[in-house]
Amino acid sequence: GRERERESVLHLSPRCAVVLFFVNLSMYATTAILAGVRDWSLAIGLIWVACASAASVVLCRERLRAAKLRFTLTRSIREKASRNRHLLQTLIPHTVHRALKKRMEESAHDALIGAAIPHVTLLVCSFNLSAIEIA
């Protein structure tokens, strides 16, 4: 059978990104000091590393939020599509549904107009309360 696709969100948590921000900053400062940098270039380098690390923390948080939103929307759409297919199969017999689907795949969308489907019973329901006469 066909293997079902699985949704997954792989991420780095914002808390972990903040911890890595401070680790990165402290490692840069330590290596710069050990290399003998003690003037303005150390401060400028620290500012650049802090800006880049802070930007990555913000991007991490936003990408995680967007991925979670996309994940929930995809799951919701798949559940609704499944529910709609089930509802359609309760209204239209399976053989008719299969024949319609086959014709739609084989030709243009207007190929169903005037198409003969033998042995079909149509059930018409009205959900409009004003159409029901109260006797």
Write the layout of secondary structure elements.
Blueprint lengths: L13 H21 L5 H52 L2 H13 L29
Helix pairs in contact: 1-2
Q: Would you give an account of this structure?
A:
The structure is a single chain. The chain is mainly α. Helices cover 64% and strands 0% of the residues. Helix 1 packs antiparallel against helix 2 (40-91). It starts with 13 loop residues before the first helix and ends in a 29-residue tail after the last helix.
Strand element count:
0
The coarse overall form would be rod-shaped
Beta-strand fraction estimate:
under 5%
- Average pLDDT over all residues: 76
Q: What does the radius of gyration come to? A: 30 Å
Distance between the termini: 54 Å
Characterize the largest beta sheet: strand count, sense, and whether it forms a barrel: none
Helical amount among residues, as a percent range?
55-70%
Assembly of the depicted chains: single chain
* Overall SS class: mainly alpha
Spans with pLDDT under 50 lasting ≥5 residues?
A: none
The ordered H/E elements are HHH
Give short descriptive properties of this protein.
mainly alpha; 135 residues; rod-shaped
Task: Summarize the model shown.
This protein is mostly helical and 135 residues long.
